């Protein structure tokens, strides 16, 4: 996973395990407090800020990974980097992009743990 080092990966291995206790990646992301609060009524969905409930340590580590990824975005290639650049080009605040990227990294981590696969960044990707 991009910008996930030995400290974050060891915490993930200890806390996440095989990931089978969560139904999907959103469930894991919600358990560490990285999904936005949702206020829905009448068919309209309003997403607010992140909930900040759950495991502070894992959330902090994912946010730091996302910040590092953003710092080295000019060196990054692949679909994840293109997605981040599109968010930044849409005049999104950098903190919002960091939280969205942290959420995506958490979901990727769950998918890797639950499906016993490896992260494939694509043929042209280069990690920072």
Summarize the structure.
The protein is mostly helical.
Give a topology summary.
Blueprint: H1 6-15, H2 25-31, E1 36-41, E2 44-50, H3 56-71, H4 79-89, H5 94-115
Antiparallel strand pairs: 1-2
Give the mean pLDDT: 85
Number of helices: 5
Q: How does the major sheet shape up?
A: 2 strands, antiparallel
Order of helices and strands: HHEEHHH
Read across the widest sheet, the strand sequence of neighbours is 1-2
Q: Regions with pLDDT < 50 over 5+ consecutive residues?
A: none
Describe the protein in words.
α2 (25-31) packs across α5 (94-115) and α3 (56-71) crosses α5. The radius of gyration is 15 Å and the shape is globular. It has one domain. The relative contact order is 0.22. It contains 5 helices and 2 strands; from the N terminus they run ααββααα. β1 and β2 form a beta hairpin. It is mostly helical and 128 residues long. The model has no long low-confidence stretch (mean pLDDT 85). It has a two-stranded antiparallel sheet.
